[in-house]
Design a protein that fits this description.
The structure is a single chain. The chain has 310 residues and is α+β, with helices and mostly antiparallel strands. The chain has 7 helices and 12 strands. The chain is globular and about 60 Å long. Bound molecules: zinc ion (ZN). Zinc ion is lined by residues 281, 283, 286, 288, 303, 305-306.
C-alpha cells in the first residue's frame, strides 16, 4: 500500500501538473453493489452526486494528510482519494479503447503516447478525470480497493476519514516529546503495529515501519512501554530519516506504486530488511540474519541479532 513517501510523491506531481486546470468530465467503472447507499463513488447515486459537485470546478491545490490525497477545488469542495492497496494516480493524454480493444485487452482507457504510462502495472484504469487541457488524471487500481469521495473543504478535518488521524511525522513541529506522548496512547501495543496505527502517527505502513525499526535497533514485537528512551530517540530520528529517504527516492515500487508519469520509485532498491528474508544483516559489524515473522496477518522483517526485543 502506498505510504507517506508514495502519497507525497503523487501529491507533488499533481501540484506540478494539474493545479490551475478545470475538471470537464469524470468517468468510472468502480461500481459495486456492496457499496449501495455508501459515501463512495462505487455507489451509482453517490457517483452522480460526486460528478455534479466537481464538474466545472478548477483545481487550486493538492495536499497529503496521512495516506490520503486531498485535491482542493475553487468551489469549496475537496476530492479525497485513498489509493488503498494497489491504486495509483497518473496524468497524461488518454483515449477510450475501441470495443475491439476492450474485448481483447479488457482495458477501458489507453495512454495515447508510448512510455511509462504503458507499463503493465498501469493498465487497470477505473477512474478518469478529463481536464480542461484535454489531458487526464486517471487511477489505475488492479484490486479496486481505492476510495474516492468529495467533501466540503471547510468540513474536511471533522470528516470521519480524517478527524481521528495522528500527527504528521515530518512536520517540523512534531518533536520527540510529541512522539513519546502519542506512542504511550498504546503502552501495551507491539511497536510495529503501533507505528502503523494511523490514529497514533499518520502515514507509516508495512514497508517503512520495518525499515524504521531496523535503524532504531528495536524488534518489531517489542512492547511500547518497555522500550528504552535511548531507542525511542533513535526511532524518532529514524522515522524522519527513513520517510525523507523514501521521498528522495520517489517512493517504493515493490508493489504496484507508480508516480503520476507511470514511473517506478527506487526506494525498494535500498531496503535493509523489508522482503530481505534470509540475507545477512547489512549493519556494519552485525553477524545477524534477516528474519520474517507474521504479525496481525502481515509480515514483519527484522535482524535477529541487533534488533532487541523489549
Ligand atoms: Zn543486524
Amino acid at each position: 500500500m502506498p505510504e507517506l513517501p508514495e502519497v507525497t510523491t503523487t501529491v507533488n506531481g499533481i501540484k506540478k501538473e494539474v493545479v490551475g486546470l478545470s475538471i470537464t468530465d469524470v468517468w468510472t467503472d468502480y461500481f459495486s453493489p456492496l457499496y449501495t447507499d455508501k459515501e463512495h463513488i462505487k455507489d451509482k447515486n453517490y457517483f452522480s452526486y460526486f460528478k455534479k459537485q466537481i464538474i466545472g470546478a478548477k483545481i487550486v491545490d493538492a495536499e497529503r494528510r496521512a495516506k490520503n490525497i486531498l485535491i482542493h477545488l475553487d468551489n469549496n469542495k475537496t476530492i479525497l482519494i485513498h489509493m488503498k492497496m494497489t491504486g495509483h494516480i497518473m496524468y497524461g493524454p488518454y483515449r477510450r479503447s475501441t470495443p475491439k480493444e476492450k474485448r481483447e485487452t479488457k482495458e477501458t482507457w489507453l495512454p495515447v503516447l508510448d512510455g511509462s504510462l504503458k507499463d503493465p502495472f498501469n493498465r487497470f484504469i477505473h477512474l478518469v478525470f478529463t481536464l480542461s487541457n484535454n489531458k487526464h488524471l486517471v487511477m489505475s487500481d488492479v484490486r479496486k480497493f481505492g476510495k474516492v469521495i468529495v467533501i466540503e473543504t471547510g468540513a474536511l478535518h471533522s470528516h470521519k476519514d480524517l478527524h481521528h488521524l495522528g500527527p504528521e511525522p515530518l512536520e517540523t513541529s512534531f518533536g520527540f516529546k510529541d512522539f513519546k506522548e502519542v506512542l504511550l496512547k498504546k503502552p501495551n501495543g507491539k511497536i510495529k503495529q503501533v507505528l502503523m496505527d494511523q490514529s497514533v502517527i499518520a502515514g507509516i505502513g508495512n514497508i517503512y515501519s520495518d525499515e524504521i525499526l531496523y535503524e532504531a535497533d528495536v524488534h518489531p514485537l517489542s512492547t511500547v512501554s518497555k522500550i528504552r528512551d535511548k531507542n525511542l530517540k533513535k526511532m524518532f530520528d529514524s522515522i524522519k530519516n527513513v520517510l525523507s529517504k523514501g521521498i528522495d527516492f520517489g517512493g517504493d515500487s515493490t508493489s504496484d506504486y507508480r508516480n503520476i508519469y507511470g514511473e517506478s520509485g527506487t526506494f525498494h532498491h535500498h531496503h535493509k530488511v523489508y522482503r530481505e528474508t534470509g540475507k545477512p544483516c547489512p549493519k556494519k559489524g552485525c553477524p545477524g540474519t534477516i528474519k520474517r515473522i507474521s504479525l496481525g496477518g502481515r509480515g514483519a522483517h527484522f535482524c535477529d541479532t541487533h534488533q532487541i526485543l523489549y
